[in-house]
Design brief:
Elements lengths: L10 E5 L3 H7 L4 H21 L4 E8 L7 H24 L2 E6 L7 H14 L5 E9 L1 H17 L10 H5 L12 E4 L18 E4 L9 H13 L14
Parallel strand pairs: 1-2, 1-5, 2-4, 3-4, 5-6
The protein binds farnesyl diphosphate.
The site of farnesyl diphosphate (FPP) has 18 residues, from helix 1, helix 2, strand 2 and helix 3.
């Protein structure tokens, strides 16, 4: 979508941050924050569908999250399994296509199986798209893409002079997915944390103060409002300044 301001974002990507602080502020264990985070995710997927957002990408687990205590990693894995088991049928019935980005090698086979099942079941859905960034790190994604490009060059399937932005993007996990128009991060932190560094090069960023479990339809609509009031120039000049 390259047509400037006052448009609805077709692709919204979200850094769901603040589960731990939400729990702490209530005297609850971090796991309770992550559980509440799943409820917020459900509400947001529904709201995005109702708003007619074509693509929603969520940062569910980063490559760096493995460094958290074992019990927390295992809670997050459990919640992903629960989310897919409980919500896959509803997502499918609502015409949502699920895609997963991130490193697949080395994942627990049960998780890998569920991710594969979610993608396979919904592959033909066209109403909207949910992209789950799981075991995802942007630099890792770019390094993996570069390695595959080097392999293809070495095998004579690709010539070095044909590598440009478009060809490179075809080797990323997000091949075929439009770049996000809007990236939202909750909890007041203002960082990208290795989330879609290639794809978000021109995205509008909206930082929302609330913790992720408190995010829902109203907060999503607010962020979309903010987006619509911005003017996107993609390195050019505003239409009104063009002459
Ligand atoms: C950040 O909160 C959130 C995450 C690390 C992961 C997001 C996970 C969910 C929304 C729930 C799980 C859902 C799936 C589908 C796996 P934080 O723990 O960094 O919060 P803090 O910064 O306040 O400690």
């Amino acid at each position: 979508m390259r047509t400037g301001s006052r448009m609805k974002p077709d692709h919204i990507a979200i850094i769901m941050d603040g589960n731990g602080r939400w729990a702490k502020s209530r005297g609850l264990p971090r796991a309770a924050g992550h559980r509440a985070g799943v409820e917020a995710l459900r509400a947001t997927v529904r709201a995005a569908g109702e708003l007619g957002v074509g693509w929603l990408t969520v940062y569910a687990f980063s490559s760096e999250n493995w460094s958290r205590p074992k019990s927390e990693v295992s809670d997050l894995m459990g919640l992903l399994k629960l989310f897919i088991r409980r919500d896959l049928a509803e997502l499918h019935n609502s015409g949502v296509r699920v895609r997963v980005i991130g490193r697949r090698e080395g994942l627990d086979p049960e998780i890998e199986g569920l991710l594969h099942e979610a993608e396979a079941l919904t592959a033909l859905n066209r109403k909207s798209n949910l992209v789950i960034a799981f075991n995802y790190g942007g630099r890792d994604e770019i390094a993996r893409a570069s390695r595959r490009i080097a392999e293809d060059v070495a095998a004579g399937k690709l010539s070095a002079e044909n590598i440009g932005e478009e060809r490179f993007a075809e080797y990323l996990d997000t091949a075929g997915i439009p770049d996000p128009d809007l990236v939202i991060r909750t909890s007041g932190e203002q960082r990208m944390s290795n989330f879609l560094p290639w794809q978000a090069a021109y995205s509008e960023l909206v930082f929302v103060p609330c913790f992720w479990p408190d995010f829902g339809r109203a907060e999503l609509m607010n962020a979309v409002e903010v987006f619509s009031s911005r003017e996107r120039r993609f390195g050019g000049v505003a239409a009104r300044d063009a002459s």
